[in-house]
Design brief:
Blueprint (H helix, E strand, L loop, with lengths): L6 E4 L7 H10 L9 E5 L1 H11 L5 E3 L6 H4 L4 E5 L16 H17 L4 E3 L5 H8 L6 H9 L5 E6 L2 E5 L15 H19 L5 E5 L14 H15 L3 E6 L7 H4 L4 E4 L2 H11 L5 E5 L5 E4 L16 H19 L3
Parallel strand pairs: 1-2, 1-5, 2-4, 3-4, 5-12, 7-10, 8-9, 8-10
Antiparallel strand pairs: 6-7, 6-11, 11-12
């Protein structure tokens, strides 16, 4: 394992469960799944959460990410970012929104400079950031793309046994049709292809592309999108040498035998992709951003205000996000540019 740099973990929404996830992950560092990381966070906040939840987690402030390796065995390394206001569990505080944004910015800056191997983001509340700090982005992914200097990026969800990418993401069903074009399909598949090679070490990744309509349109009797849009996009990708197949019916492409025939599924809309993944392994799903100049993963859940401060947060998705980020960083380091 190439551990020339540790992973950076962001604060996330301090009203949510992010701090508890960070502490619980560090507490499980001896199980072989948790790589070295440091938190960009408020040391006093994390120490208070550890005490309140009964987690034995000493917290040590660091001045540089490189210090994390010497500290990680005995304490949680934290790059200090103090919160300006007291923070109760489960209740966003507008005055702290700026610190949440600053944590993301610092973690990305470290990754871009090579001080961090990748960024693992704790969940944020977009509305809290928008109202508290004028956050100008629709979500985490768009902000990370801007910080990385790329025009757009692609969201992939992964769990053991399945990787999925929704072509259209947070749109009402009535609005998804405008987002399903030959250009969006081919552009997204190219990002997937390049990322699978660079970040997952797959020399010729297999991309299964779903249909939109029941039975993938059944020859046009249930819709023409497969014939007029999706199939021509797949043919164009194949001409470029990309191993793309489909369009596959959404109801038959996720059983065991079908999943063995591809490395990642490109689906037409949000639930078509996420329902099978969350059904297969709800607690270990990871959100991965493809197409960035740095590695970024996140647990596949939200801030969980209702669980904050109760010591009931499940760290499995967060630990999987750490392990995935480390594996991606190592694959990226071993893959020629």
């Amino acid at each position: 394992m190439d551990e020339s740099a540790p992973l950076a973990v962001t604060m996330g929404d301090p009203a949510g469960i992010g701090g508890e996830l960070t502490i619980k992950a560090w507490s499980r560092r001896t199980d072989g799944l948790v790589p070295v990381f440091y938190a960009v966070d408020d040391p006093a906040r994390l120490a208070a959460i550890a005490e309140a939840t009964g987690q034995p987690c000493p917290v040590v402030a660091i001045g540089d990410p490189s210090e994390a390796f010497a500290i990680f065995t005995d304490a949680l390394p934290v790059l200090p970012l103090p919160l300006p206001a007291p923070q109760p569990s489960g209740v966003p505080v507008a005055a702290n929104a700026g610190a949440v944004i600053a944590s993301i910015e610092r973690a990305v800056a470290d990754a871009m400079a090579g001080r961090a191997a990748g960024v693992v983001t704790n969940p944020i509340n977009k509305r809290a950031l928008q109202t508290g700090a004028g956050f100008a982005y629709p979500g985490h992914t768009e902000f990370l793309a801007a910080l990385g200097g790329v025009p757009s990026s692609v969201m992939m969800l992964a769990a053991p046994g399945l990787r999925v990418v929704p072509l259209t993401v947070h749109l009402a069903l009535r609005d998804i049709f405008d987002g399903i074009t030959r250009d969006t399909i081919t552009a997204t598949a190219r990002v997937i292809h390049d990322a699978m090679r660079r970040d997952f070490g797959l020399p010729k990744p297999r991309i299964a592309i779903s249909g939109l309509n029941p039975h993938a349109g059944e020859g046009g009797s249930m819709g023409m999108e497969e014939i007029e849009t999706i199939a021509p996009a797949i043919e164009a990708l194949q001409t470029e040498g990309i191993d793309a197949s489909g369009p596959w019916p959404g109801d038959t492409m996720f059983h065991d035998e079908a999943r063995a025939r591809y490395d990642v599924a490109l689906c037409m809309y949000h639930d078509q992709a996420l329902i099978p993944l969350k059904t297969l392994d709800f607690h270990r799903g990871v959100n991965i951003t493809l197409g960035l100049p740095f590695v970024r993963t996140s647990p596949d859940h939200g801030t969980a205000y209702d669980r904050a401060g109760r010591n009931t947060a499940d760290p499995r998705s967060f630990i999987e996000a750490l392990a995935t980020a480390r594996a991606m960083a190592d694959a990226r380091a071993a893959t020629p540019a």
